[in-house]
Structure to design on (816 residues):
């Protein structure tokens, strides 16, 4: 490496000498600007050369180096918790009585039910999903407004599984430099073994990932037994296969390509960020100009400026997406904070204060340059608004969940005919009434109607005992045909009426409104 | 330096294509190579698709594909699946008497749903999707029946039809009193006013209702009864109620007496299976006017 070599840092570091010690010893001054522009070889004006420019580029393979520190520990913790939750949740049990599944979290597609502990969601209650999506989006925005891409760096499944796969890769093929050396050494028997072990472990993880996925859609212990004894439905094996493949490909091979080319969130978050949002930031006010330890001592002795960055490239080598954080905010940066750990380790070793790279804002860098104290504004209009929206939507969801009834009634007025004239001149309206029983036992309901004095109610399917009793099976709905006959001399064109449902045992009720229609202004 | 190269964008450091439109230049950002391979893979996939699925048109047919799949075949498979699914209930329905269906809640709900589906497909074109009827096509929601409204009577009507040509069809013929010269024009007008009077409808001033009553007794009472309340054996409508199949105004009644009315309903016994006809009978009976 020579001063001012116009290469990207990672490419410049492919030789084995560019380790930490070698770099600390290196005595060259870097003159790269904080937001340096990678130099592209000048192109000739002639048209031929333009057309020869490549349209496609090969992926630059990234060998992220092992690192330890605060953010690495946070990432391990998040990885363990999220994977633990993902793999084990289907096995949690929840007693709902004899007519309902006993799995705590279950998406029962064939019966159109979603079970989540004490909550059972019916298809018409899919608005809870809408609420969850709004909360999820707002939480994402809030995280972004507070501290950048927390989701991308720590919580995104792509990050979590890639992290796990990279750990497996380092375990089998060795850390960054060993791995690169082995690849240069060709296919030795040892490398074949290590390579085979890596892919075996990857496929095992991928297989378990797909396996856990299907357990959310059926009774987990039963399905595990059926899968093991090859009696599970084909679709279960198919989905395990699909998810094994996607996990293997996305976490093993695609990795940062997913973030760079497939995921829309980097683009969206770039539009949502503001100057107060904390981001993983290279504090160039402190770091520049870069110089090795020796050189900076020499510069300082001469009274020349020297920054804290010794250009050891550790931040680049640990980066899972291969970016140089010192170039400023970057689309490829998932803000996992591993470069902070790497830089802190170096700073501690050479006895300088840590957090040359830290969660900070460009605004604070400018303030420090002007001799002002940095300011952190976590509570600002944007974040408060996000919190308020989350609270309102969450509150509405909680309210509807608490006040949710175990029975419901919905009315559909006949459209052909809207009303019927009977032989004695009375007007009759017919309604299709759907009664939902959300309990896991059979219940009986009575049906009544208010709002139209002197009219007669008739429930076609009900027992003929004077009261209109309709039985509805456990966790089911039932449709009955209801007739309302009005004997008034001059019925109004439209009269609002209400139907009421009562549980004959518990007295729980539900109501729904509709209209009684009649030919306008005609005598009977 | 990079910033001095006119063909490198200073903000991104990416080379441009060299094309310029009003000072705007296009960045030449290369796509990832795997993306290109994905494109090739989709092309290979498409070729595989041609081989296993129907794809290429020939002169009189098309390449049918190795799987032998067709959308028609897929429908047949789905229909057979439905038949298998419904088979236990259909067997039960076939074995249950019409009058006993209502007692079994599950069977009743199943029959009602089957009947509704069959009604919309087969009966809706004349009677309307909800059985609301139209001029000349009876409303099946009301409580007036030409040929009877019990479950069995409805079933018989659906099975054999009305004036359908089936040998068991419900048959009757109203004479065309005017066209065939059985009544004169003024006699028809007189009896039309009498018919309106027994239905409690206003009559034309000066109409001779006594003469009308005589004409009615001589010509109409045979089928419609001496009091005009109709006769279901003949399919002769009750003329005293508020339900009029063709209309109750004077001109329409005169037209009816002059030319006669004889609606036709096809026999469904050869077109629909007995279980479907049973479900239809139960459904029509449930619409609101069903009689015991």
């Amino acid at each position: 490496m020579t001063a001012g070599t116009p290469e990207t840092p990672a490419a410049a570091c492919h030789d084995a000498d560019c380790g930490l010690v070698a770099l600390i010893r290196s005595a060259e001054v870097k003159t790269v600007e904080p937001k340096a522009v990678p130099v592209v070889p000048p192109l000739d004006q002639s048209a031929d050369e333009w057309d020869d420019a490549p349209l496609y580029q090969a992926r630059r393979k990234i060998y992220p180096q092992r690192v330890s520190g605060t953010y690495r520990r946070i990432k391990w913790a998040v990885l363990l918790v999220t994977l633990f939750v993902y793999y084990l949740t289907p096995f949690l049990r929840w007693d709902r009585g004899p007519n309902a599944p006993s799995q705590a979290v279950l998406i029962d597609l064939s019966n159109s039910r979603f079970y989540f502990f004490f909550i059972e969601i019916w298809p018409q209650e899919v608005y809870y999903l809408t609420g969850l999506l709004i909360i999820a989006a707002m939480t994402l925005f809030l995280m972004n407004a507070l501290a950048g891409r927390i989701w991308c760096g720590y919580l995104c499944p792509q990050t979590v599984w890639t992290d796990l796969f990279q750990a497996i890769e380092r375990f089998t093929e060795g850390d960054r430099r060993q791995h690169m050396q082995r690849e240069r050494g060709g296919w030795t028997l040892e490398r074949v073994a290590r390579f085979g072990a890596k892919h075996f472990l990857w496929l095992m993880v991928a297989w378990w990932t797909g396996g856990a996925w299907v357990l959310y859609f059926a009774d987990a212990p039963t399905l595990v037994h059926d899968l093991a004894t090859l009696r599970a439905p084909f679709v279960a094996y198919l989905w395990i296969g699909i998810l094994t493949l996607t996990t293997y490909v996305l976490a093993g091979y695609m990795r940062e390509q997913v973030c760079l080319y497939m995921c829309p969130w980097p683009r969206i978050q770039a539009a949502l960020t503001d100057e107060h949002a904390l981001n993983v930031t290279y504090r160039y006010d402190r770091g520049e100009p870069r110089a090795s330890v020796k050189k900076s001592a020499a510069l300082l002795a001469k009274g020349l400026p020297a920054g804290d960055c010794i250009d050891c490239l550790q931040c680049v080598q640990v980066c899972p997406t291969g970016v140089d954080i010192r170039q400023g905010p970057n689309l490829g940066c998932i803000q996992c904070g591993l470069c902070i750990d790497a830089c802190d380790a170096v700073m501690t070793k050479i006895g300088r204060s840590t957090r040359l790279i830290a969660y900070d804002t460009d605004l604070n860098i400018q303030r420090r340059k002007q001799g002002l104290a940095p300011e952190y504004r976590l509570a600002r209009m944007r974040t408060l608004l996000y919190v308020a929206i989350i609270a309102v939507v969450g509150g509405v969801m909680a309210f509807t969940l608490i006040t949710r009834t175990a029975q419901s009634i919905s009315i559909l007025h006949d459209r052909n005919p809207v009303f019927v004239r009977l032989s004695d001149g009375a007007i009759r309206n017919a309604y299709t009434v759907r009664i939902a029983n959300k309990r896991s036992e059979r219940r009986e309901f009575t049906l009544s109607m208010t709002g139209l004095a002197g009219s007669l109610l008739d429930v076609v399917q009900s027992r003929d005992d004077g009261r209109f009793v309709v039985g509805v099976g456990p966790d089911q709905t039932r449709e009955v045909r209801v007739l309302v006959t009005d004997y008034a001399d001059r019925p109004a064109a439209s009269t609002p009426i209400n139907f009421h449902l009562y549980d004959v045992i518990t007295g729980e009720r539900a109501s729904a409104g509709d209209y009684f229609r009649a030919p306008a202004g005609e005598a009977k | 330096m990079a910033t001095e190269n006119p063909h490198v964008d200073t903000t991104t450091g990416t080379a441009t294509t060299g094309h310029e439109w009003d000072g705007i230049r296009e960045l030449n950002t290369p796509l990832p190579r795997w993306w290109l391979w994905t494109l090739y893979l989709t092309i290979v996939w498409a070729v595989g698709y041609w081989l296993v699925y129907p794809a290429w048109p020939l002169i009189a047919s098309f390449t049918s594909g190795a799987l032998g799949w067709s959308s028609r075949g897929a429908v047949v498979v789905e229909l057979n699946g439905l038949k298998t699914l419904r088979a236990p209930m259909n067997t039960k329905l076939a074995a249950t008497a019409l009058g006993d269906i209502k007692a079994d809640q599950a069977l009743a709900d199943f029959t009602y749903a089957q009947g509704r589906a069959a009604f919309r497909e087969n009966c809706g074109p004349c009677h309307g999707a909800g059985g609301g009827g139209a001029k000349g096509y009876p409303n099946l929601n009301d409580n007036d029946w030409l040929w009877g409204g019990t479950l069995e009577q409805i079933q018989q009507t659906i099975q054999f039809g009305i004036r359908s040509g089936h040998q068991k069809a419900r048959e009757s013929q109203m004479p065309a009193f005017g066209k065939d010269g059985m009544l004169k024009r003024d006699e028809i007008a007189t009896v039309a006013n009498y018919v309106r009077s027994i239905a409690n409808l206003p009559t034309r001033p000066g109409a001779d209702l006594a003469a009308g009553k005589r004409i009615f007794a001589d010509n109409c009472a045979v089928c419609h009864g001496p009091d005009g309340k109709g006769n279901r054996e003949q399919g002769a409508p009750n003329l005293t109620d508020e339900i009029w199949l063709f209309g109750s105004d004077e001109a329409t009644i005169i037209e009816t007496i002059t030319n006669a009315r004889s609606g036709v309903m096809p026999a469904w016994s050869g077109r629909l299976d007995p279980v479907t006809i049973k479900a239809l009978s139960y459904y029509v009976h449930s619409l609101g006017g069903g009689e015991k």
Summary: Chain A is about 40% helix and 15% strand. The longest helix of chain A spans residues 189-215. Chain A touches chain B through 41 residues (CB under 8 Å).
